[in-house]
């Protein structure tokens, strides 16, 4: 039996004395589609960097595809935040995708064929020769996904993929990510609760600690404990409570409603019964 | 102008302008796309420290200045590699400190009366033949190193974080880029001066960014633009009897402002 795609055991990370991740454990099997939600500063990017081998945890075990990171080039398809990309650089979409094959000593024709195949998967073949900075935000994100897909990795990691994308673009993007599972394991980290509405197999919440729940395929188990971990507890008249309530309803249907005070009570309560 | 080409000094000036343009097109494109213009300015000004040191110690100017500038480049590289948020402050300090050190050491050097203005605007009309050969060698070195590392430089320039995960030696490339920049700056300052180096590193490359479809294309365009500015500036200098370096910069800067203004106007008029 193959080892899990991602295996984190009691991982902790501190930066300048501040604990960013505290005893985080998570196991993701191969072929899963996992979303990790977290507020800004909650440790999402640190978690991703630990997975990629860019940071070493203070303690705990990290295994990716059965190996200790960093893995070899192309084994993980990483899609960083769009804000990290230099959009003014004169580079075509095809060249961007071929950057994903940089480490592979492939013949030129094979590189072009792989790039075209990746662009077909994200529906961007029309933009092959366009300059990257001429694309819309959603198209740029798709081009970055194609770059990650080109080396045919077994694990895809997305850091805040919905930043700077409109609601329709987000919907299309998550449809695309859902279609990528099967060949690869897909991990998305996001502060955007909408990410949990995608057809995922597992949802986790990280805010220094990590809570997770597995889906049953019909609804998103964004539990009250997870929301409390992400955003704390709020009085019923607090605007944050109203926002979270509306998001929770949208994600989980009308059977759930918010009840946030006092602090010891769950943020959401099942009232369908 | 044709008559002028019969003079050795003018032939050397033309050759120096073309060779400096090529170096600036290659390095300037990498400087502009990696947003290292301020750092390039810092390296160029820190090179003054090397000039002062060479006169103070009575050592050959170019090797001493190259060594000093390489040290300053690597120090700036080390201090700015991870701390991009405060890198401008660090560069600003080294910028001023290097220049002050150079001037102080020149003041303390007995028997020397160096014209610092010649290092600011250079003396392109008085380039000796050996400096032209040295610049040609520098261009060959730059072409070879950039061509060999082109894909890595492209990946680094587009997305530094992704580059790290893709196995690109980001730190090594960062230091390599700054070292090449340091050597280029020293060699070109001897010929065209500090101000023209910064102008030729930035203006043609920024103009070349418009319309180019690849980093290599941008480098070629930037080199051609730099050559056009240099040759037109030399011609203006000869005809109007003005300082060549300043004439080249004035032409490049004027073109830059015209292109920028047209860009803003087009955006304002045709914005949907």
Describe the overall structure.
- The complex is a heterodimer of chains A (273) and B (272).
- In chain A, helix 2 runs parallel beside helix 4 (137-149) and helix 3 crosses helix 4.
- Chain A has 273 residues and is of the alpha/beta class.
- Residues 253-273 of chain A have low confidence and may be disordered.
- Chain A has three domains: 1-75 and 153-221, Rossmann fold (3-Layer(aba) Sandwich), CATH 3.40.50; 88-147, no CATH class; 224-273, no CATH class.
- Chain A has helices spanning 44-52, 93-99, 108-121, 137-149, 167-180, 224-231, 239-252, and strands spanning 6-15, 18-28, 33-37, 59-64, 76-79, 155-159, 185-190, 202-207, 209-214, 256-258, 268-270.
- In chain A, the strands form three sheets. A six-stranded mixed beta sheet of chain A has the order 5-6-7-3-8-9, with helices on both faces. In chain A, strands 2-1-4 form a three-stranded antiparallel beta sheet, with helices on one face.
- Chain A has seven helices and eleven strands.
- Chain B has 272 residues and is an all-alpha fold.
- Chain B has one domain: Orthogonal Bundle (ABC transporter involved in vitamin B12 uptake, BtuC).
- Helices cover 82% and strands 0% of the residues of chain B.
- Chain A binds chain B through residues 52-54, 70, 72-74, 76, 78, 80, 84-86, 88-92, 95-96, 99-100, 102-103, 129, 131, 147, and chain B through 33-35, 151-152, 154-155, 157-162, 164-168, 209, 211-215, 217-218.
CATH homology superfamily name of chain B: ABC transporter involved in vitamin B12 uptake, BtuC
Structural class of chain A: alpha/beta
Instruction: Give the tally of β-strands of chain B.
Output: 0
Radius of gyration of chain A: 19 Å
Strand order of the largest sheet of chain A: 5-6-7-3-8-9
> Architecture of the largest domain in chain A, according to CATH?
3-Layer(aba) Sandwich
For the secondary structure, the number of strands of chain A is 11
Q: What is the domain tally of chain B?
A: 1
Overall pLDDT of chain A: 80
Helix share, percent of chain A: 25-40%
Distance from first to last alpha carbon of chain A: 41 Å
Written as H for each helix and E for each strand, in order along the chain, the element string of chain A is EEEHEEHHHEHEEEHHEE
Work out the helicity level of chain B: over 70%
Number of helices of chain A: 7
Shape label of chain A: globular
* CATH topology description of chain B: ABC transporter involved in vitamin B12 uptake, BtuC
Quickly give the CATH architecture of chain B.
Answer: Orthogonal Bundle
| Biggest sheet record of chain B | none
Give the count of structural domains of chain A.
3
């Amino acid at each position: 039996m193959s080892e899990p795609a991602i295996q984190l055991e009691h991982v902790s990370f501190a930066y300048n004395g501040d604990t960013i991740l505290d005893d985080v454990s998570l196991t993701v099997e191969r072929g899963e589609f996992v979303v990790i939600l977290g507020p800004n500063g909650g440790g999402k990017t640190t978690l991703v960097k630990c997975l990629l081998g860019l940071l070493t945890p203070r303690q705990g075990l990290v295994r990716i595809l059965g190996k200790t990171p960093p893995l070899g080039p192309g084994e993980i398809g990483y899609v960083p935040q769009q804000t990290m990309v230099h959009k003014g650089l004169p580079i075509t979409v095809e060249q961007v995708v071929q950057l994903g094959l940089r480490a592979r000593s492939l013949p030129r024709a094979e590189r072009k064929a792989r790039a075209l195949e990746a662009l077909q998967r994200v529906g961007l073949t029309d933009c092959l020769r366009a300059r990257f900075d001429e694309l819309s935000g959603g198209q740029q994100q798709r081009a970055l996904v194609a770059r990650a897909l080109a080396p045919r990795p077994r694990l895809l990691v997305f850091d805040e993929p919905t930043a700077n994308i409109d609601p329709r673009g987000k919907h299309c993007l998550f449809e695309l990510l859902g279609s990528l599972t099967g060949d690869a394991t897909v991990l998305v980290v996001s502060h955007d609760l909408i990410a949990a509405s995608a057809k995922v197999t597992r949802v986790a919440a990280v805010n220094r600690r990590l809570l997770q729940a597995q889906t049953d395929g019909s609804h998103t188990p964004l539990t009250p404990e997870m929301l409390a971990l992400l955003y704390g507890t709020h009085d019923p008249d607090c605007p944050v409570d109203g926002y979270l309530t509306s998001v929770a309803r949208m994600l989980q249907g009308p059977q759930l409603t918010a009840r946030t005070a006092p602090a010891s009570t769950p943020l959401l309560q099942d009232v369908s019964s | 102008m044709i008559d002028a080409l019969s003079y050795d000094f003018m032939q050397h000036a033309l050759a120096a302008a073309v060779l400096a343009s090529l170096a600036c097109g290659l390095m300037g494109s990498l400087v502009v796309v990696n947003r290292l213009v301020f750092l390039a300015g810092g390296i160029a000004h820190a090179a003054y420290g090397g000039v002062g040191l060479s006169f103070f110690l009575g050592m050959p100017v170019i090797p001493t200045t190259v060594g000093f500038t390489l040290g300053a480049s690597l120090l700036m590289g080390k201090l700015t590699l991870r701390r991009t948020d405060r890198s401008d402050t660090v560069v600003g300090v080294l910028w001023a400190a290097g220049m002050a050190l150079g001037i102080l050491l020149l003041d303390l050097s007995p028997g020397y009366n160096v014209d610092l203005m010649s290092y600011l605007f250079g003396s392109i009309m008085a380039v000796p033949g050996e400096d032209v050969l040295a610049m040609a060698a520098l261009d060959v070195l730059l072409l070879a190193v950039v061509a060999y590392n082109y894909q890595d430089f492209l990946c680094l320039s587009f997305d530094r974080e992704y580059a790290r995960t893709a196995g690109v030696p980001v730190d090594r490339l960062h230091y390599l880029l700054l070292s090449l920049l340091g050597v280029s700056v020293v060699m070109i300052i001897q010929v065209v001066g500090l101000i023209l180096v910064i102008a030729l590193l930035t203006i043609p490359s920024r103009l070349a960014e418009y319309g180019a479809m690849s980093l290599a294309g941008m480098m070629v365009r930037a080199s051609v633009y730099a050559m056009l500015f240099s040759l037109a500036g030399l011609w203006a200098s000869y005809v109007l009897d003005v300082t060549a370096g300043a004439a080249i910069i004035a032409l490049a800067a004027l073109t830059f402002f015209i292109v920028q203004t047209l860009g803003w106007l087009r955006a304002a008029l045709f914005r949907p």
